[in-house]
Design brief:
Alpha-Beta Plaits; 2 domains; alpha+beta; about 250 residues; 5 helices; homodimer
Chain lengths: ~250, ~250
């Protein structure tokens, strides 16, 4: 009797060419698929919620696969963790209905982008935060972040090469806080365009550097012009925190 | 005119066989020495303050070397950082008197040991914290930590193979705090025996697990018996935070 198993997955993206299986490079989906095939003895295919880019991290990406295996769905994570490398962990597993699809459900998805501020680069931060020797104005960044909330056409915050047909997304929350020497940008939305969080973060960093003012953000969104927004920040600072689905 | 240059060094110990130069393996001192030789064109030798073990990290280890180079001492760190890999950074540099020796000065030295508590291993924490699926009793650990303060014979907290001639050290401060899901053990002393902080941390972890009580710590110190103390925790959780010298 086939069942659909859902996995919550956490990984350090440093050593991977992103989520999606590709010929000739090591990807998270590739390594995960191999582990599931070994555990179940079946030629399964994984459907992932978020195809994170090379170097992007995840605390809670979601994936499903269909299996006839007798391993209980809620024990699957333990079996897989024995087969996975140190930098990929299945946090939990459960059974979902056979038509549950991780990219077709209504959801709230949260990303965090970290920027480490210090007079010199810090080796212990380099894999999980973008670096700046500038002291960013966090308060002004947080004020600017508010302008992203709501439903907008985010064409100005989408990298070229997107296959999106609609550029409208809803941002439920966007804020910036300070944790130690890090500026942490947190964005929750119903979905994101290609590189959208890294471009939002680059734009907020411009505000933190006084290159843009918080009051300009709404105009930049309305411009629908990628050149008005800030730079795409590097992958290492970005972590997919997780999903909340309406069940 | 020869001068003695002092460096404050930060590194991610993950990829190194510790600080000290050894034949056939990559060490922090080895890579740093090569960079200084390239910068100065001289066959210099480095004297380090702390010979951290394989896998141990540092925010502020200290080293000195003597040079005739015309590079100003306070600019040396910038020159070296162009030659060093990503996981080693010289935070600052200055000139000290020619008899200033990083292991022979009175100092206060601080280490932190991090233990990550979570139902499953977290890939983003694995390089910089020891992992436990248990919820440690931080309050009780912090109470136990107080017993380490003061001047004691720390024979019970020294690994075999130590070349120390005296086992008496002064601990100025020892405390345990919670940061997110991490227990952070902080120890400041005038010096430490071989593996001492990792054994103190293992003993405090035993307290956090209710395997030992806080009231037992003084008796364990007085026993001078390594078997009474807790296990030596793994290197990855340990970071040398830094030195304060009486100048």
């Amino acid at each position: 009797m086939s069942k659909r198993v859902r996995l919550k997955i956490s990984y350090d993206g440093t050593s991977y060419h992103g989520w999606q299986i590709q010929e000739g490079v090591v990807t998270v989906e590739g390594v995960l698929t191999e582990a599931i095939r070994e555990a179940t003895g079946e030629d399964i295919t994984v459907i992932g919620a978020s195809r994170t880019d090379a170097g992007v991290h995840a605390m809670g990406n979601i994936a499903v696969f269909d299996t006839d295996s007798r391993i209980p769905a809620d024990k699957m994570f333990m079996v897989l963790n024995k087969l996975l490398p140190d930098d990929i962990i299945v946090v939990s597993s459960d059974e979902v209905s056979s038509d549950w699809h991780p990219r077709k459900q209504e959801c709230r998805k949260t990303y965090e982008y970290r920027i480490y501020m210090s007079p010199v680069r810090m080796p212990l931060k380099r894999l999980y935060a973008h670096y700046t020797y500038n002291e960013l104005n966090i308060e002004e960044m947080n004020r600017a972040a508010g302008a992203f909330r709501g439903e907008h056409d985010f064409t100005a915050f989408c990298a070229a090469g997107s296959q999106a047909t609609s550029f409208t997304r809803t941002i439920y929350d966007c804020s910036v806080r300070k944790e130690g020497n890090e500026a942490v940008i947190s964005v929750t939305g119903n979905g994101f365009l290609y590189n959208m969080v890294r471009i939002i973060s680059g734009t907020l960093m411009d505000v933190g550097l006084c290159r843009k003012s918080a009051d300009q953000i709404s105009g930049i969104i309305d411009s629908l012009d990628r050149r008005q927004a800030g730079p795409t920040l590097p992958a290492c600072g970005l972590t997919l925190i997780g999903y909340e689905y309406d069940e």
